[in-house]
Design goal:
Blueprint: H1 10-19, H2 29-36, E1 39-41, E2 45-47, H3 55-70, H4 74-84, E3 88-90, E4 97-99, H5 101-111, H6 121-133, H7 139-146, H8 150-181
Antiparallel strand pairs: 1-2, 3-4
């Protein structure tokens, strides 16, 4: 009997690890029975076999994946955290969604680079978010508020995107190898 890898790609493993929620409810006997068979239900559709990543097994697997991310060099670690750890939590005082502290630290660390030397911190943070996570950025508003040139800002943003793509690519190659060696991925 061959052991099936848990994930099809490094991306899938990272998404699982960064999104893993430890508050999963315990499985009832009925859910175990349903998940142990490939059943077809008109309301649920096909029920697929679980890979056993619930409860403590899921937490352990997520922990092993995140440990590999932590072993990456700082810039690679920060790019992976910024890309994959976008989960938010509800602030206790205002009940509004807030980004996780680890994500904010990674974005801040990546904003201290030569490409953004001399640029106001608020602008640096917005440009790093845009370069790594995508989304909208008000270039005209930033240029007006901080007296910046649009062509310079666009050039810096382009350089950042290229830089972070290279760093992310190196990190993914490293993680691919590590996850393949640990039989987490399809070879």
């Amino acid at each position: 009997m061959t052991e099936e890898p848990l994930f099809k790609s490094t991306h899938e493993a990272l998404v699982f690890a960064f999104n893993y929620a430890g508050q999963q409810s315990p499985k009832t006997p009925l859910m175990r029975m349903i998940q142990s068979k490939d059943l077809e239900d008109d309301r649920l559709g096909p029920v697929k076999k679980s890979k056993g990543l619930a409860g403590l097994d899921g937490a352990a697997q997520a922990g092993m994946i995140l440990a590999e991310v932590c072993r990456l060099p700082d810039d690679q670690h920060n790019v992976i955290v910024a890309r994959y750890y976008r989960a938010q939590y509800e602030c206790k005082c205002c009940e509004q969604p807030r980004p996780r502290e680890e994500w904010k630290i990674a974005i801040d660390a990546l904003s201290h680079c030569i490409e953004l030397e001399g640029v106001h911190k608020h602008v640096r943070l917005q440009m790093v978010r845009k370069a790594i996570c995508g989304g909208d950025i008000d270039i005209k508003g930033l240029c007006d508020k901080y007296l910046l040139s649009k062509p310079t800002l666009y050039r810096q943003l382009s350089m950042l995107k290229q830089k972070y793509r290279k760093i992310e690519s190196m990190a993914m190659i490293r993680l691919d190898k590590q996850f393949s060696d640990n039989k987490l991925l399809v070879a």
